[in-house]
Amino acid sequence: MNRTLFAKELRANLFVSAIIAAVLAMYIGTIVAMYDPKLGKSLDAMMQSMPELFAAFGMSMQATTLLEFMLNYLYGFLLTIFILVLILVMANKLMVRYLDRGAMAYLLATPNSRTRIACTMIGVMVAVLVGLCALVTALEAGFAEALFPGDLDVQALVQVNLGLLALWLAMAGLCFLSACLFSNSSAALWTGGGLCILFFLMQMVSQAGDKFEFLKNVNPLTLFDYYGLAAGDASAVGGAIALAAGAVALFAAAVAVFDRRDLSI
Amino acid sequence: MSATIGPSIAIEGLTKDYGSGRGAFDVSFSVERGEVFGFLGPNGAGKTVTMRNLMGFIRPDSGSVRIEGLDCFAQRARIQERLGHLPGEIACMDEMTGTAFLEFMARMKKLRDRTRMNELVEYFELDPARRIRKMSKGTKQKVGLVCAFMTSPDIILLDEPTSGLDPLMQSRFIELVLEEKRRGATILLSSHLFEEVERTCDRVAFIRAGKLAAVEHMDDVRKSRKRVFAVTFADAAARDRYVAAHPAATAHGTASVETTVGGDLDAFVKGLAAYEIVDLTAREQTLEELFMHLYGSESKGGSHE
What we know:
Chain B: Belongs to the ABC transporter superfamily. Chain B: Keywords: Antibiotic resistance, ATP-binding, Nucleotide-binding, Transport. Chain B: It is a peripheral membrane protein. Chain B: One of its GO terms (biological process) is response to antibiotic. The complex is a heterodimer. Chain A has helices at 3-34, 42-49, 51-56, 66-75, 78-101, 104-108, 114-147, 154-181, 185-208, 226-231, 234-260. Chain A is mostly helical. Chain A has one domain (3-260). By secondary structure, chain B is an alpha/beta fold. Chain B folds into 2 domains: 9-220, P-loop containing nucleotide triphosphate hydrolases (Rossmann fold, 3-Layer(aba) Sandwich); 226-284, Alpha-Beta Plaits (2-Layer Sandwich), CATH 3.30.70.1150. Chain B has helices at 47-55, 76-79, 98-108, 115-123, 137-149, 167-183, 194-200, 218-224, 236-245, 265-272, 287-299; strands spanning 9-17, 23-31, 36-40, 62-67, 70-71, 83-86, 155-159, 186-191, 203-208, 211-217, 227-233, 250-252, 256-261, 277-284. In chain B, a hairpin with a 3-residue loop joins strand 12 and strand 13 (256-261). In chain B, helix 3 runs parallel beside helix 5 and helix 4 runs antiparallel to helix 5. At the A-B interface, helix 1 and helix 6 of A face helix 2, strand 6 and helix 3 of B.
């Protein structure tokens, strides 16, 4: 890690991260506010009127507790798709654009190895995602505590969010590897991004209809079982660990590729 | 780093094939410590490919590229401790101001003393306060030059260093190169302009279509370089008589000739005295012409861009 580069890139990515954080804060606030422990049937009624559509976005459970309600409406879609957008913006800023515009030549014209440069860029991504995950957890707990004191199982929430972080990091690893792999800038950005989007579509299709249930088995997103994590299931914890391990492997592969490849800069 | 024996920069049999004739093919030359070495060739001849190899951006298909005995690809980070580099394409971090960029680069290079950096900013009359995106090409080039020289490196690689600079700044650049040479720096500069190479370099390599045509001492090149005179006669008849008498001259336009003159300037002027001359202009041989002259038989058949 190079502190100078880390500080510069963290600052450069702060603005877009703040926007994503603001959007997530708005959604978290809205969803938590919509929870009504006694009369909370309106959303359920809406859900029953168009079950396939809600199921596609991962909102299919009859929510009985505040945590289940949040899991149902936040974790299937909102807390993942917005983060994917942020990850793609960061992968573009931290690697794709540097190579495409040739500015990487300046970074490499310093006594810093390619491994060090790549690890610093990964460090920025991980720092932003960890910070955002902490913020999301704080917002969820904060809103819940303010509106429904004592209703939220905070420990279960933390378990779920650690799994969520593993999922984010795995997506970031995939996008960063693709950014390091290709010299064509569109391919570098959209191979990783496209795969993530494909996984989301597969998940939506498999949740909506029984016919496509088999897609679940080939989809890495299935490893993030948030209901299982809330309950502390061993298999769900295993899935989260697998995602984290995948993230480490993908980032390591990205560094190795970046260290060895030819750079036309 | 311990002092190594042998040349500062050593390229042996470097081949990097990008397909369809682009790249570098079996390029070999070396640059001695404290030498200023020019690397001349037309656009797309393989100058930048060679520079990328020296910077460790790309790995040679075959051959070896070494700086101070270190492999340029495998040990690039160590080499960078003593190296200054100006990329051929000025693509700085657009969104930064010049000041912020230079400060950032100084930190990345672990440069403690900013005296030299500020000296260079003043020397090139650079106003670094603006955003790099809004700067003209010449100003961006100045930022790159300050960046390349600010650590007072032992080895300096410059890819087309004067592109975008006005004539005053071009001569300042040449002064700077000579000053750095006196300090003992080894400098490799690539160019397609003969003038900047002529005024700075001890030796020069000609590259064309990825192949090294020759490495020459600048003094020898200067000696063999001739002038081209364009002479306009009063009428076509006089021109034709002159061409008949001087087979070296080639007819141009209605009443003009172009002729290349080496050492026998006196004979050329006296030969013209018998005719009525309307106009006479002289220019230096272009790089291409000189090149053809030096290596005519081998290179004429080659791919001419």
